[in-house]
Model the fold of this input.
Amino acid sequence: MDYMVVYSSKTGNTKKIATEIFSALPGMSKDMQSMREYRGKDADVFFIGFWVNRGTCDISVIEMMSGLHGKKIALFGTCGMGRDAAYFKSIEQKVNVWVPDDCEYLGTFLCQGKMPMQVRGNYEIPMEDPKQEVWRKKMLQNFDEGLFHPNEDDLWQAREFVEQVLSRV
Ligand SMILES: Cc1cc2nc3c(=O)[nH]c(=O)nc-3n(C[C@H](O)[C@H](O)[C@H](O)COP(=O)(O)O)c2cc1C
Done:
């Protein structure tokens, strides 16, 4: 069994998870490349990483995945939102539709990733509407918690995900 880890990462969070996944994979028949580096290197099992861009993955991930046939595909990603299982599920569903029909889908791992500091400014000004103010505070708290992610626990969960995937192939 050989493995390819291919990831899209703008600010490094998804690359961190990709590196952990790569190191958790057994044997020597494995490689890791960014989406930009990837030129079609083949493998039996693909771990494909994405950063969440407006609720889904970026187009490079869709294009890359569309070129795979007869492969086993596991997905992983990072997003600004944390601790929200329903949100994670919605992302998984939006991204896994791009797994080609003739490939076997092996699941998705998602975790929170820190966002650039300038994003915090969007949540710093108090709002008059009480409902919006509750939302703003929630987003501010989420942003601050995100500063520590991916953390050691996320990396541990990524390794667990690899174990689960390997038990299925
Ligand atoms: C343009 C843009 C759009 C984003 N859209 C979302 C989003 O819809 N949902 C979310 O939870 N995070 C969103 N984020 C946050 C990133 O997904 C998050 O910071 C991710 O960990 C970045 O991964 P990277 O460091 O691998 O690039 C967005 C970030 C950017 C820059």
Notes: Residues 63 and 98 are 9 Å apart (CA to CA). Residues 9-15, 51-55, 78-81, 113, 115 surround flavin mononucleotide (CB under 6 Å). The chain has two domains: 3-114+149-168, 115-148. The radius of gyration is 17 Å.
